[in-house]
Task: structure prediction
Amino acid sequence: MATERIGPPVTGDEREMLRAFLDYHRATLAMKCDGLSDEELRRRSMPPSTLSLLGLVRHMAEVERAWFRRTIDGEDVPLVWSDSGDFQVAYDAGGATRAEAFDAWQREVAHARRIERAAGSLDVTGRHARTGEEVSLRLVMLHLIHEYARHNGHADLLREGIDGTVGA
Result:
């Protein structure tokens, strides 16, 4: 099954644009994983690095959870794969499967969308789970767009190394 990716609009209000660009980048990561086996998704970029497509999906589940649920919604939930708060654990996808990684990621994206839509405005704030710093929903959405864009660049290289597929 191929991931449907809808290009963001070229006009619209700020929130609509942020939402669309974030969803575009989420879909881009999913597209980079389309058609690959669990083994291919676990393939590391350059040992000793643990970076893999599946590791990126797991990492982005952590990022979605940390910023939307823990920071904006104030939920007292641990990370998905680390009780100690170590974000690096998610990158090691050695025993992971597409099903468990994508299920966790999609659950966190659904939570993030619910939290974003329920917020009265982009000026809603929460406390960063690690620093205690007050941050706005606007900053969270911009940060996630940045995080996905950066990691989608990694995903481009990983995918090309697996089967030669290039482009978005």
